[in-house]
Model the fold of this input.
Amino acid sequence: MIDKVRLLAQGQLPQAYAANVLGTGFTLDGRFLTFTGLNAEALRQVILSSRTDDEVLAWVQEHARPTTAAEKNTWAEQINGYRPDAALVEYRERVYPELAAQVDVGSLSVLDLIDMDERRLPNKG
Done:
């Protein structure tokens, strides 16, 4: 998320990602903002004015709503465990046709998609 905000501000983020940067709702950014209670614009300003990711993390830890380690773990498990419904699978198949030809896109978590997009996981096939 931090990298996306910085790349968007520099005009270097691919257009396909721009709409979801610090977006609300069911996007990963939106889920993070809801869980932490942070304001998207305030977070954007902190990201753009901070020199390091650690500075952003410190701000988030100071300003996010208090949560326990168990709540954080539950949230992370829910994010990683979520799988799309049929309509979203169809959407993924349209948006990621090459990937859909190789793997069952309905079996991938949003974190799997991010890792694959950023080439941190080999293509499964």
Summary: The chain has a mean pLDDT of 89.
